[in-house]
Recover the amino acids of this structure.
């Protein structure tokens, strides 16, 4: 492995950590309804746990209501039960061929809990990024030990990896600030 491969691998892994954080943050409920809330809800589809998006059409009806329209009528009760059991604080109701899922307004206390959750997710992402930096630095030290690069090259590469780490940590902080603002907006 060369220094360039180490740097590219590090950047790729840090990018994946940032993308994972953004996916995790999209699941955190804010005051508005969004279909991402139901992305991880699993429905019992003929004995097999299946993602809700594979058995129904999930759309926004208005700012506070999600509409779930099953592709098979007999799946209505299973989908409704899965949404209730998902521990999201949502109470779906069936109206004809559509399941309406109103999202209740968040209380001030619940908003603060959500902000704590967002900060925890962010801290986990920062830890992952720092672990990636550590792995990259160990790889660079191994290259020096195996005499595949000089100590000067290793030092320059370590500095570049530190700059990369700082950039990704700043991106995490920005994502957290945006999500925190979104959660606290009434």
């Amino acid at each position: 492995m060369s220094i360039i491969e180490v740097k590219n691998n590090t950047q790729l892994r840090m990018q994946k950590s940032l993308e994972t954080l953004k996916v995790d943050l999209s699941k955190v409920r804010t005051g508005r309804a969004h279909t991402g809330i139901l992305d991880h809800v699993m429905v019992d589809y003929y004995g097999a746990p299946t993602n809700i998006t594979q058995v129904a059409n999930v759309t926004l009806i208005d700012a506070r209501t999600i509409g779930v329209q099953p592709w098979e009528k007999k799946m209505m009760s299973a989908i409704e039960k899965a949404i209730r059991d998902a521990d999201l604080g949502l109470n779906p109701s069936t109206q004809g061929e559509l399941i309406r899922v109103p999202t209740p307004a968040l209380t001030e206390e619940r908003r603060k809990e959500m902000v704590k959750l967002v900060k925890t997710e962010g801290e986990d992402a920062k830890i992952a990024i720092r672990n990636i930096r550590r792995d990259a630095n160990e790889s660079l030290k191994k290259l020096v030990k195996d005499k595949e690069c000089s100590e000067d090259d290793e030092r320059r590469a370590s500095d570049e990896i530190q700059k990369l780490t700082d950039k990704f940590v700043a991106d995490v902080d920005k994502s957290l600030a945006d999500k925190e603002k979104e959660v606290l907006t009434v």
User: Anything to note?
Assistant: The first strand starts at residue 42 and ends at 45. Residues 108-145 form the longest helix (38 residues). The helical segments are 3-26, 76-85, 108-145, 151-184.
